[in-house]
Amino acid sequence: MLPEQQARQKIDKKLTQAGWLVQDYKSFNLSAGFGIAVCEYPTESGSADYILFIDRKPIGVIEAKKAGVTLSAVHDVQTTRYASDKLKFIIKETELPFQYESTGIETYFTDIRDPVPRQREIFHFHKPETLDELYKQNSTLRKHLQSLPPLQTDGLRLCQIEAITNLERSFASNRPRALIQMATGAGKTFTAITSVYRLLKYAKAKRILFLVDTRNLGKQAEQEFRAFKPNDDKRLFPELYNVQRLQSNFIDMKGQVCISTIQRMYSILRGEELDESLEDESLYESKFTIKPKDVAYNPGVPIESFDFVIIDECHRSIYNLWKQVLDYFDAFMIGLTATPDKRTYAFFNENLVSHYEHKQAVADNVSLTVMLLIPAR
Question: Please, are residues 180 and 365 in contact by the beta-carbon 8 Å criterion?
Fold first, then answer.
């Protein structure tokens, strides 16, 4: 089998897993289902590898390449051409907005409706229902992130104001990962919740994942979410948005905030039951040396489940063993830590949006929580 055919087989399988019906152009039937991926669809300049249809309307294109091809170079040359071409038998008014390049191993996605359209690598294809929802929206998440209102600073420390302001500038620049370094006791979680509130209210984020590496940290985060009262509303956070702390494998997809240990989220993606003892000890301190199996696509928890993922104590537990959980979601990543190391900086692409160390906190008379700090490795 030729490398191109091998790539097509992998792409077909992933599309099917995400809920698409894959059809050949010679026998395609757009009434067969909601989301249809038609192979070798003819355009004015040649046959597109796949044209994506939702409810009989063309909305996307996939350019398939053999393994090893640099997909970033393919987008400008071929994908955009087919997305702009006239289609045989089908009238389309504008360029197809959802554009993919894939080898079946690597997949990249671009939404051309974004202010500055940019490729991003994704773990899997999106579901048809997701693209339909995105297509019907007047604005994209990245457009909203460029027009957030000024931060109301009442009740916030200077370091928190700086962190949130710089974080939102990073979002507006479409930088996928950002790191907040803030001394223990200076209010990292409060800062994160303030940001979550603004992202839900003003950026129209649909769902945010707050990841921790121990059950106790999850409980503490839940308590802080439930006690949080925004400075522009008299209601508590849970009166405005649903907060769920995962204690089983059920994720409430109608909720807005999901708190989970990274261990539990891994087991959910794997479709396995969690050994709950793994949640009691930080993975950084853990003596477990289990090498987990690779995360596979889970249609019950698609890659687009969360718009933002916040990783608490991100210097400790996101590398090697459990990094797969972060690579799975098509989301902005926000790291919280007091003690980053080289791996932390590297994972967040050296994008440090807040730098507030213990020495500065002491100088500012910030009341720090006394606790045992284990140096980052």
Answer: no
